[in-house]
Design a protein that fits this description.
2 domains, five-stranded parallel beta sheet, Rossmann fold, alpha/beta, homodimer
Chain lengths: 465, 465
């Protein structure tokens, strides 16, 4: 299981001003946390509670269908192209980057065991899109278009382009190269999938994008590149069991949620830095950023009070970002908490050769990169402690499907608990609606004409110094 | 030239509480800014002022040597491997990603015009290193090891490994595959380069890593993959000329520095979000993060007062991160300023085909991705204005070597000006020294034994809940 160290956010290590009296706070919040966890687990099956993601570890049907389809197409495609943005891409990208051999897309087919290369088209930059079209042989490309609503402008415009090109190359057979992942009943993608006859996977109701990684949204792409999704599921289940414990002293999701919440409320900690010491986990912070930012960045609480809460999540990767962020973390304002992710055992042990012995770098020779990585991580941790900067550490026994299932699920639960502590709606995203409507207006969508006029004036003003 | 729009950080657009009275502030700070700019330009040649980077646009000798060497090795290598971390990697990575065709490393040799693929090994993760060794044919790999001091543990340990492997494969000829970029006189890399006979490029004195992109540190890798460094240099020169203007009303670096400074001091804006609307610029924020964080995150001001200043730079890319950060930017605490980078003309114009006309996504058909990108950017900007969130915009006419030279240099000057406004030492990084010493101790480097004992105790404590 994943281990959790919180002592470096406590007074014993970083002092009274910066640190929390953690044990006392655990007592203070014991009852509140007990209620929150009990409520999450009793509400998760009720419609409208948006907690269906808590059931994804037990969705045997989806797992079965994903594996069946994966077996069917095995070896048939050179490329897997994911059309999706935000929660429809970030989870699978982070997990595939962590579990596939490094530089996967550069390996030849044999080294990939005939599994496809994987591409995430998560932007609408015309230069990038043209570059991708130049690169990919679409005939050999399986396209997975992912959008719950079916109306995401970025994803659907990409899909229109790719569908058109595919059909031009393959005629009617083009549909064999397309899989849609969307809502079971609603939306235009579902409608098109039925009409055109695409293979379709469904996202269960009441799951928002950022909590969808363990639905077909994430599991299908991962299975298609050969990742063992049964192991992921086992990791979720074991973590879910552990996190059902309503005693904060035995629930690491509750512990980190509470520490982050109190740091925000009482210690002016406005940022949460996610810093895995592993290059394979380099996209994990991207997934965390969306989860934490979109879930907890809210204007109103559940009672309608204007609160404008939310910690800003910050991406980092160790040891690299010691040469970028550490100076600020140490000496800047004391307004960040660092989440270290420590990997206990890397898959490889690589030795630094014993050369240049009589120079000032001779001390490195004969040691391993593993030890250097661990030393740098410990140095950073202790240095932050010296500077009285709060930090916590998650210890991952190793990077595999099982422990990543645990890790991602743990942070989902942590986020849900934090949302309850803030007393906000964790699962909404009202702050992006206005911007979506503006885009519709600027793209001449019927029904948005009024807003287009108003926009023209605003646009003029905001480009005039 | 790059254009700059600041009005969306002013009271007229975002109101009195969140916005600045910008024109008045320009008046208030006119004299101070005049002095700062005059001082930068008069001090830049004086030793110890760490402003030598302001001369890099005029370093014809380096440009000449870089081009000569590039011509000499043209077509000889399939791969260029950069061993460097932080400032030794971030600039060249950001610029090469922006200027090379997308998916460069996946293109075959012909499409790369025989220029090499480019790899940045900027971490010490044993799994990543092993993956790279599995991938690369070292015989066909040109290795550029970059460290000013010559003692950077991450870079030199990588170098020891690669040198050992190269020598095993190539014997004495291995040295032809190595270029060292380091100090002209000091450090173990310089010593080794002389001893072993490596081709060497020098980093001028008094330039810190994060301001080194336009020395051989950045120019050599960029030239080696076929980027027109003369155009970059021209961009720097033209921007340098523009930024010599001591009148804040005609100096965009001073304008943005002042706005960021005042936002930090007076409006509680503790974060600076860098958000290019271009996928090709996706690593530009990484470079900016190091520049801004390490330069301005400081414990003491020049008079020795404890100030703990520094805005936290945040990486983002549009339109992607609308689906990740926008909710928090709009509804969270009003503690961030967003820097939009707008690209006026993309290289490609890509049309969304006119299909699915009678569905709810029909409005997209017949429009271009270019228009969609611009619409989303404008929607985000106006939406942030509605929420009274400060933002500024840099308009890049197009993404090419000339304008990237301008862009990077402009942010360097902005950072130097901001440092003067904060009255701190922009070019030091005292906050990372302690951590480096800890690493030496944990790696059993001779001379660090005392600190090792102390560390053992600290280490034990910081893993015990």
């Amino acid at each position: 299981m994943i281990d959790y160290i919180y002592v470096n956010s406590g007074r014993e290590i970083i002092g009274d001003e910066a640190g929390l009296d953690i044990e006392k706070e655990f007592d203070n919040y014991a009852e509140k946390i007990r209620d929150i966890i009990a409520n999450l687990n009793s509400n998760k099956d009720k419609p409208g509670h948006w907690l269906q993601w808590m059931n994804l570890g037990y969705n045997e049907e989806t797992v079965w269908y994903v594996k069946e389809f994966t077996a069917m197409v095995e070896g048939r495609f050179d490329n897997l192209l994911i059309l999706g943005i935000g929660g429809s891409a970030l989870g699978a990208r982070a997990i595939s980057e962590a579990l596939l051999p490094p530089y996967w897309n550069l390996l030849d087919k044999e080294k990939r065991n005939s599994f496809p290369r994987i591409f995430f088209l998560d932007n609408i930059d015309p230069d990038q899109i043209q570059g991708l079209l130049n690169l990919l042989d679409l005939k050999k490309t399986l396209v997975n278009v992912i959008t719950k609503s079916g109306s995401t402008a970025e994803t659907m415009s990409q899909f229109m382009l790719i569908k058109d090109k595919l059909e031009a190359e393959l005629g009617d057979d083009y549909r064999k190269n397309i899989i849609a992942t969307t809502d079971r009943e609603m939306g235009v993608l579902k409608q098109l999938a039925d009409q055109e006859g695409y293979k379709t996977f469904y996202i269960p109701d009441d799951i928002s994008g950022r909590f969808s990684v363990f639905s077909a949204v994430g599991l299908l792409p991962l299975a298609l590149v050969g990742i063992d999704i049964d192991e992921i599921i086992q990791g979720i289940k074991d973590m879910d069991l552990a996190l059902k414990n309503t005693d904060i002293r035995h629930n690491i999701a509750a512990q980190n949620a509470l520490i982050h919440y109190l740091m925000f409320k009482e210690k002016n900690i406005s940022m949460s830095v996610m810093m895995p010491y592993s290059n394979r986990l380099k996209y994990f912070p991207d997934w965390y950023v969306q989860l934490w930012a979109e879930s907890l960045g809210k204007e109103y609480d559940k009672n309608g009070n204007k609160v404008n809460v939310g910690q800003t999540p910050i991406k980092a990767v160790g040891a690299t970002d010691q040469h970028s962020l550490l100076q600020l973390l140490a000496e800047g304002p004391n307004n960040k908490i660092v989440n270290f992710i420590k990997v206990k055992d890397f898959d490889n042990e690589v030795e630094i050769p014993k050369i240049f012995e009589y120079t000032s770098i001779g001390y490195l020779g004969g040691k391993t990169f593993n030890r250097l990585m661990e030393s740098e991580e410990n140095s950073t941790r202790i240095s932050l402690n010296d500077y009285k900067r709060p930090n916590v550490t998650f210890i991952l026994p190793k990077i595999d499907a099982y422990h990543l299932g645990q890790l991602f699920y743990m942070f989902e639960v942590q986020t849900a608990i934090a949302g309850e502590l803030y007393n906000i709606d964790t699962f909404s995203q009202t702050g992006v609606e206005q911007s979506k409507n503006y885009t519709y207006a600027l793209m001449d969508r019927v029904g948005y004409e009024d807003s287009a006029e108003e926009l023209k004036t605003k646009l003029q003003k905001c480009f005039n110094n």
